[in-house]
Amino acid sequence: MAHINTNPGEYDLTASAFVVRDDFDEPRIFLHMHKKLHVLLQPGGHVELGENPWQAIEHELREESGYTFDELEVLQAKDRLRSLSGTQLHPTPVVVNTHNFDAEGAHRHTDISFAFLAHGEPSLSPVDGESNDIRWLSSDQLTQLDATEIFENVREIGQYVLNHVYFQWERSSAK
Fold first, then answer.
1. What is the pLDDT of residues 111-143, one digit of tens each?
2. At 119, is the secondary structure helix, strand, or coil?
3. C-alpha dihedral sign at 78, 123, 62, 43
4. Nearest to 45 by CA among 33, 31, 59
5. Among 124, 148, 118, which residue's Cα sits nearest to residue 30?
6. Pairing verdict, β 107-118 and 10-21
7. For residues 47 and 45, what is the distance between their CA atoms, to the nearest angstrom?
8. Mean pLDDT of the chain
9. Buried (b) or exposed (e) across 44-65, using 16+ Cβ within 10 A?
10. Nearest-angstrom CA–CA distance, 12 and 6
11. Do 109 and 12 contact (CB within 8 A), yes or no?
């Protein structure tokens, strides 16, 4: 679906997923080559009208990676709210950040990034039209990527997830 906000200076809300797999020789993170931007990115996309960020990431993961929530565990900070009266409490994101989407800075995204754990390949393939250039990268491989292959903020979040979140955060059902 198209951007909800299209005028200069407006922001779109996006949700993204840093998926770590633990069935390699070392933890590796999922990135795919974005078909329009031609850089490696985590799965994610716009939060559409009528959905919350958790619903958005569920369908974006399915579309871009082939993973469904029943195949994943969500990584959660140990010290977090576990219930909240009168609300639907969503998993704690790894980070919430606002960044320019275009080189001119006329359009921005505020992204809510979640972390997930997978123990193997997804049961499904990315949907037609999504990138099939999928990479499972170690921390060292992330470091070695050229600046033309990855945005620095994606590299930094990926490193944080691989080197801290994966080892220190609790695992719970993503469903």
1. 999 999 999 999 999 999 999 999 999 999 999
2. coil
3. positive
4. 59
5. 118
6. parallel
7. 7
8. 93
9. bbbbeeeeebbebbbebbbbbb
10. 9
11. yes
Q: How far apart are CA 107 and CA 104, in angstroms?
A: 8
Q: Report residue 58: phi and psi, to 5°.
A: -60, -45
Token reading at 25: 């020789």
Asked whether 53 and 148 are in contact (CB, 8 A), the reply is no
Asked whether the beta carbons of 157 and 115 are under 8 A apart, the reply is no
* pLDDT, tens digit (0-9, with 9 covering 90-100), for 36-76: 889 999 999 999 988 999 999 999 999 999 999 999 999 99
Phi and psi at 17, nearest 5°, equal -130, 125
Q: Under a CB-based contact definition with an 8 Å cutoff, are residues 114 and 74 in contact?
A: yes
Residue 166 to residues 27, 74, 116: CA-CA distances in angstroms?
Answer: 8, 10, 9
> How far apart are alpha carbons 162 and 155 in whole angstroms?
10
Q: 70 near 175, Cβ under 8 Å? A: yes
Tokens of 50: 């009528």
With 0-12 CB in 10 A as exposed, 13-18 as middle and 19+ as buried, what is 136?
middle
Strand ranges inside 47-94, DSSP E: 72-76
